[in-house]
Design brief:
The protein has seven helices and ten strands. By secondary structure, the chain is of the alpha+beta class. The N and C termini lie far apart (about 40 Å). The structure holds a DNA duplex.
Length: about 270
DNA sequence: TTCCATGTTCCGCA
DNA sequence: TTGCGGAACATGGA
């Protein structure tokens, strides 16, 4: 599930449950999830306390003093805080046992996520060449224009490339283009200034909205494309037909009526 | 049984 | 150099 809004909620969940708690033990239930040797993870956390938590794109960083726990959630990662072992989630891969008897499990059915340790989130971000976080207040339209001007190819590919913009995934890329009335296969160099601005504005609005209604436990509104991810469904915005295709290797939905491709010369 | 899944990485090709 | 297509990874649900 996790794209930027979901990881933002995990971040808040971590802040609400794990900050200020001392780590008594780290149990690795499936070492395939680790991006670091088990003893390095344990040494970094045991006997320490989580004092800060940050997010960049889809990545979560939690400070334990001198080093940071890094979590990436892949396709099915999740967090679960609980007291009673009977409440442990089914696919718990790493469990952090706190000194006060509570536990935080990193749960990930499909094992595409990563649990590891980094000395500094900023170094991690640089090393992994992650682009700016779209909700960073320091990320402005002029920065986005700068990025866009150096690119070609399909606009959806741009939105999904983590080294360009960190945090957008398949769903929110589709949602952004849907609201912007732009076909996912439009090429970046063919976008007008107004369209680039619309993508920038809608991308941030949608991510913020998603955080808001998800934090209230709600679902996406019916006007969202994500509620209509089915070939042949009716577009709630214009009544057009929802179509399915593949862009950047991912299943892509769009409205055939209000997200159109420019005519191509033969 | 087969296909699909909200992510990332790596390789080959144009 | 840039970008894309495809495959791989691991697992469960429709």
């Amino acid at each position: 599930m996790p794209e930027l809004p979901e990881v933002e909620l995990y971040c808040r969940y971590f802040a609400g449950h794990a900050l200020g708690r001392g780590v008594a033990a780290v149990r690795v239930l499936d070492a395939r999830i680790l991006g670091v040797r088990e003893h390095v993870l344990r040494r970094a956390l045991i006997g320490r306390e989580f004092v800060d938590v940050r997010r960049h794109g889809k990545h979560l960083f939690a400070s334990a003093g001198t080093s940071w726990l890094h979590l990436h959630f892949g396709m099915s990662g999740d967090l679960a805080f609980y007291r009673d072992d009977a409440e442990a989630p089914r696919f718990a891969r790493v469990v952090f046992d706190f000194e006060d008897g509570n536990h935080l499990a990193y749960d990930d059915m499909r094992l595409f996520g990563v649990v590891d340790v980094t000395p500094d989130p900023d170094v991690f971000i640089a090393e992994h060449r992650l682009g700016p976080d779209p909700l960073d207040p320091a990320f402005h339209l002029r920065d986005f224009r700068q990025i866009v001007s150096k690119r070609r190819g399909a606009v959806k590919s741009l939105l999904m490339s983590q080294e360009i913009i960190a945090g957008m995934g398949n769903l929110y890329a589709d949602e952004t283009l849907y609201r912007s009335s732009i076909h996912p296969r439009r090429t970046v160099d063919g976008l007008s200034d107004a369209e680039v601005k619309m993508i920038f504005t809608n991308m941030r609005a949608i991510l913020k909205e998603a955080i808001t209604f998800k934090s209230r436990g709600g679902d996406y509104p019916g006007r969202y494309l994500v509620q209509h991810r089915e070939e042949g469904d009716r577009c709630p915005q214009c009544g057009g037909t929802i179509q399915r295709t593949v862009v950047f290797g991912r299943t892509t939905y769009f409205c055939a009526k209000h997200q159109t491709l420019p005519r191509r010369k033969k």
